[in-house]
Amino acid sequence: MNHINPRNAEQERDPEIDRLLTTDETAALLNMAANTLAKGRMEGNRRHPPHIKIGRLVRYSTRDLSEFIRRRTASNTAQ
User: Fold this and answer.
1) What is the rounded CA–CA span in Å between residue 6 and residue 10?
2) How far is CA 27 from the centre of its chain?
3) Three-state DSSP state, 65
4) Which of 17, 20, 31, 69 has the most other CB atoms within 10 Å of its CB?
5) Is the pTM here over 0.85, yes or no?
6) What is the Cα–Cα distance from 67 to 49, expressed in whole angstroms?
7) Any residues with CB less than 8 A from the CB of 21 and at least 6 apart, and which?
8) Banded model confidence at residue 7, pLDDT cuts 50, 70, 90
9) 47 close to 7: Cβ distance less than 8 angstroms
10) Is the pLDDT of residue 16 over 70?
11) Helices 34-43 and 23-30: crossing angle, nearest 10°?
12) What angle in degrees, to the nearest 10, is found between the helix axes of 62-71 and 23-30?
């Protein structure tokens, strides 16, 4: 009987498809409060990561979060 190893299946995923995180997962990743993300969404604040609405659900793309972090990475305190 052939069994699919979940690790191999995950490795074979299409690299163009990124994972969608919840607000709580995103807040934990960015080490910030979920309420801060919610406030940023309501204000349309560009200092917060972009979000995706799927019906009533709010999600954050791992690809967008990587780009958000990259754009805010400073090499010195003057930046």
Assistant:
1) 6
2) 9
3) helix
4) 20
5) no
6) 9
7) 29, 59, 60, 61, 62, 65
8) low
9) no
10) no
11) 110
12) 30
The letter for the amino acid at 10 is: E
In the chain the first and final C-alpha atoms are separated, in Å, by 58
Whether residue 65 contacts residue 21, with contact meaning beta carbons closer than 8 Å, is answered with yes
Task: Give ∠ CA 61-64-37 in degrees, rounded to 5.
Answer: 75
> Per-residue pLDDT tens for 28-78?
999 999 999 999 999 987 889 999 999 999 999 999 999 999 998 888 877
The sign of the torsion formed by the CA atoms of 42, 43, 46, 47 equals negative
